[in-house]
Hints:
The chain is an alpha+beta fold and 507 residues long. It has nine helices and 20 strands.
Amino acid sequence: xxxxxxxxxxxPAGDKIGVDDYKNLVRVLKxxxxxxxxxxxxxxxxxxxxxxxxxxxxxxxATSFCQVSNNLSDVASAAxxxxxxGLGSMATASTSDYLSKAGNLSGLASTATAQTNLxxxxxxxxxxxxxxxxxxMTTLGITAFAQTILDDVDAAAVLLTxxxxxxxxxxxxxxxLGTMAAETATDYLSKAGNLSGLASxxxxxxxxGLGSxxxxxxxxxxxxSNNLSDVSSAAxxxxxxGLGSxxxxxxxxxxxxxxxxxxxxxxxxARIPTVAVTIPYGCRLSxxxxxxxxxxxxxxxxxxxxxxxxxxxxxxxxxxxxxxxxGGLDTGSVAANTWYHIYSISNGTTVxxxxxxxxxxxxxxxxxxxxxxxxxxxxxxxxxxxxxxxVSKNKFLWSTPxxxxxNEAIITSRVLxxxxxxxxxxxxxxxxxxxxxxxxxxxCSPDQTDQGPSLTVSPLVTFxxxxxxxxxxxxxxxxxxxxxxxxxxxCGIYIATLGWTDHELQF
Length: 507
């Protein structure tokens, strides 16, 4: 509470206050404040508790509070007040909206609806509506006779109602019945059930001494009368018996039969089938009319290298290296100083010939699948074929021997020399050779172990320079047309290639 205090200040005359007047005014003001302090304290009531103190309500308006006489009608929000009191929605409901315990459900709006809500069926509701036991049993469909039995108080009365005599109360022994009369029928097997009522079929089979085969179908087993014709897989059965592929052949003289040994372990001629075998022949190579480009393949027979069994009979054909495909070069154009392999090829009907750079896998023309290599030829610097002659099935000679090396340096370590024989195959080269210097020479295939010449131990020498005569030699090459050479001392060698034997041709 504010208390008004009046302080009188002496003011000087005039409009202005001097310094001395100001100081005097301050002293007067300070004194008046001190004099009136006790009055201020005496007239001020402080907030708080205890003597001389007011609560916080002392400063509030009366409308901020509920009046006792209003019985809480003046609360700002009745719903909020109920919530603050912890009241639920039931606090605002009327007692007439609910059933009392004392009423024992007598206040239900609809008994029938209540029964339906409880899941009581219409039939059960009629039972509930019955007013007597007799009506109840009648509703249940119990006959009047059955009701008289239900009304009986003991078993004797029931028997009497049923009209049963003394015999009904006798034991099975008194009636001459066996112990079976007191047993339950479900404890036994009926004849009509054909053992279907067994508690455990597996245990029953075991008790009868039956094995696992007793539950299998007849089809799972082989019949002796079928002589193994009913096995599911004859091939698997043969394997399980340890039989090989020969077991499926017959003994006899027919095609595909196995010949049987006769007396003394010899084949009986009568049992040996006659087999027609065509031995490869012909198909020799020679220069054609156009000696620079053509090769003639003579008539003959070869077995295909594709399947090693299909024969190809050639009626004689001329092929040209400057042509393409069947009867020419398999792919590309003819090149200088190059070896070309010659093939007999067939499409199953027509047999032709072809040149190829490959010694094993020529590019086959469309429709052609069978092939057999017949030999090889070489072109010169002008891309023309170098003349040759085939003197046997696999031996070829140059029409004019080729001087491959002239005083070539040979030292005490291995030197590889390339000769004029086909590449891509192993051949046996036919050469004339002589050496210069004062050493011994050893020539061999590069596929053999590297060894030096010796006059006393292996591999000895191919020829000795001290020999007066020239030497014609046979030396095997590798697939690069090379032979290996070593000398006992630094020497020179001359080699002229006369021809070669093709080891890989078909006979």
